[in-house]
Design goal:
single chain, 261 residues, mainly alpha, ABC transporter involved in vitamin B12 uptake, BtuC, 11 helices, globular
Amino acid sequence: MPEFLLLALAAGLGVALVSGPLGCFAVWRRMAYFGDTMAHSALLGVTLGLLLDININLAVAMGCLLIALLLVALQRGRQLATDTLLGILSHSTLALGLVAISVISPGRINLMGYLFGDILATTTVDVITIWAVGILVLIALAYLWRPLLSITVHEDLAHVEGVPVTAVRTALMLLMALVIAIAMKVVGVLLITALLIIPAATARRLARTPEQMALFASGIGALAVVGGLTASFYWDWPAGPAIVLGTTGVFVLSLLKKQTQ
């Protein structure tokens, strides 16, 4: 197996491992639109990296975290509904990122790679970054698992039981922002949310407990990564979209399985 394919596989599996349990909370709490907003804001991080001449991955993570904190602050103001805020931030950050990149560095940046992923160009540093961030996110999720489940079931009841609802909700948003930042290399800005949502939605139809759903979602994501890279290697498909199609294929099979039962 070529070295570039091994690096791509390692990066994809790292993202699938952490996006599984995080995607479960995105499905349970109906945060798909939040994922889109974070993904679109990643392009602003690219712009920030070019302006400050710093590592692009670090800049993307900083951009996503800043947008997540901005959203938390705007939600507290209660000036607009959350879905309206997400819609404004999502499309504004995407448009601003596209314009800024075209002005700052015209023709120098592989824009298609950022939009649809460039997993086959993954480096050893990328793989180390993805796994390091992924492990940290998984540790944080394990620590916050019970409080997150509590606020997902009923926020008011969790608050009465002493759960710091606002802090836990903010932590979830920041963790999702970090995962979206590292996933951009694998499937790109426009497809990140699919990698979060589709495996979790599939696992929801198969699992009986929240923990099972998280494990199944990671496994489905990993299976899709292997299938997508295989299709890319043998049939020259674009790797990022092929991975997302792999998750969609498993989801369709889960629908058929339920119908035959």
